[in-house]
Specification:
single chain; about 325 residues; alpha+beta; Jelly Rolls; 9 helices; globular; binds 2-oxoglutaric acid; binds fe (ii) ion; Iron_ascorbate_oxido_reductase; DIOX_N
Length: about 325
């Protein structure tokens, strides 16, 4: 696919700002219908969500810039044996991209441990911003997952248990801008492996693109407001919902001299739980599509060869 295939298409925009957005209300049911439609048709949507104060969102981008300014040797103190956790940079195919992945971003001890590796003397603004951003933004993740499961009639006990069986990974990302006129790939096209991903970016608006379901076009994502977040379905949610919700294929383009910073909140299954389609999603009309799989093993599989970050590879890995 050529790089310049983007069209002036738009993602669905869903408003989560109603103060009455609680399960059982008319507002909830209406947003729930929109979420289902968007995840069925795009595997992705733009959420308007005002529970993250503007100053907090700004603070996260400020500490992210501060962290990336640290010397390379310092950033490398948080290198993880697992790809895309800890620090990753200097990737030969994407030399201008760097990421700092904070695993268990909801857990004070883990965030403090991560922070102390970067700043041995501590950095409370960093750790507190990461934690409170995770706490506030995870509400959007939890609401979305509850809505999608409810809309397919999944029972309440399962939903409660499911929502508690995840942890959060926060990825701080930087795409260095350089002098050039051509568009260039900042991150190759892929689907995420986790449950849901929530993305936001600094004031550099361009970059993120999501593929249409028919595989023909790239939608340029231009968040409409300062309180916009992009929500993407991941492979694990796709398996849980027995293929009934899509995973949004996405990529990042780097454009010109502007350095782009983005932040992603990823809900990830806890390793001890095997992933398989929820009972209510399987019936005569919708036969079981996937066998149980272990998330860590699947994650490892996707890192061991090219082209393993799409639905075809997922089906080859655990399809029936
Ligand atoms: O930088 C972004 O907006 C997207 C990052 C992304 O797709 C990922 O981390 O999986
Ligand atoms: Fe992604």
């Amino acid at each position: 696919m050529s790089l310049e295939a983007s069209l002036a298409l738009q993602l669905p925009v869903i408003d989560f700002t109603s103060p009455n957005l609680k399960p059982g209300t008319v507002e909830w049911d209406s947003v729930r219908d929109d979420v289902r439609k968007a995840l069925e048709e795009y595997g992705c949507f733009e959420a308007l969500f005002d529970k993250v104060p503007v100053e907090l969102r700004k603070a996260v981008f400020d500490v992210s810039e501060e962290a990336f300014r640290l010397p390379l040797e310092t950033k490398q103190r948080v290198v993880s044996s697992r790809k895309y956790r800890g620090y990753v940079g200097q990737i030969p195919t994407l030399p201008l991209f760097e990421v700092l992945g904070v695993d268990f971003a909801e857990n004070e001890d883990k965030v403090n441990e991560f922070t102390h590796k970067l700043w041995p003397q501590g950095n409370t603004i960093f750790s507190e911003s990461v934690m409170s951003f995770t706490e506030k933004l995870s509400e959007l993740d939890l609401m979305t997952r509850r809505m999608i499961m409810e809309s397919f009639g999944v029972n309440e006990n399962y939903i409660e248990k499911h929502l508690k069986s995840t942890k959060f990974l926060m990825r701080l990302m930087k795409y260095q801008g350089v002098e050039e006129t051509e568009e260039e790939l900042g991150m190759e096209a892929h689907t995420d492996r986790n449950m849901l991903t929530i993305l936001c970016q600094n004031d550099v608006q361009d970059g993120l693109e999501v593929k249409t379901r028919d595989d023909k076009h790239w939608i340029k994502v231009n968040p409409s407001q300062a309180s916009s977040y992009i929500v993407l379905g991941g492979a694990t949610l796709h398996v849980l919902m027995n293929g009934r919700v899509l995973t949004g294929v996405h990529r990042v383009m780097r454009m010109g001299t502007n350095t782009r910073f983005s932040v992603g909140l990823f809900s990830v299954p806890r390793t001890e739980d095997l992933i398989y389609p929820v009972e209510e999603m399987v019936d005569a009309e919708h036969p079981r599509l996937f066998k149980p799989f272990d998330f860590e093993a699947y994650f490892q599989f996707t890192t061991e060869g090219p082209g393993r970050r799409d639905l075809a590879a997922l089906r080859a890995y655990c399809g029936l």
